[in-house]
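User: For my dataset I need records formatted as: sequence, then structure tokens, nothing else. Please produce one.
Assistant:
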Amino acid sequence: MALYSQEAEARPPTTAWVDARVPPGVEAPPPDFLLQVIGQFGHPSSDSCHRTLNTAGMNPRPPPGAGLPLESREDSARWCRQQFVLSGWEVMAGPEGRPLDPARPQLHRSPLPPPGVPVACGGVGMPPLRLRIDLDRLDPVWLDVAGGSRSLAFFGPEFLVEVGEEPRITTPGGLVLIDGDVIDPDRGRPGLAVCPGGSVVAFSVPVDQDG
């Protein structure tokens, strides 16, 4: 069975999909990769399963019981038996369906509109973003968000990963991003435009500096 690992709001409207649960002991798949997965419905743990609200990364945390259905343990277990639970996965292709090339680490590419077309960005009051680069990972670039959450980093076509003693992300205009860089999502930095949108943050070169 093939499964896209990506955020729900980013799924193409024609893509058939099923939610998958990742149990303890199974590594979480990289987002936006095409995967071959192994798993099952009616997982053995379903009979003792009980739904709870995942508050990881929520700030402020919701009050106890918020967002939970009023249901018996039997109803909760029935819901759990209907969930697809991963037992393993294998990467078939990288971001946007591109073949993996270990010698050329891939960035997620941002489908930004043409220059001059307005883009709806969030991020007002969003905590600082810390860029992380680890070339030993299948998905080597991501963003740690203050408070414990993580965001997916998307980049325009002008951004490249340079492999070396200290890997970095560069542009032809001389912009350099390294592991650990802290970025203000509201202000960006000179030569770098930032567009937060939910769990995805898009980076681009400002229009007046493009080219």
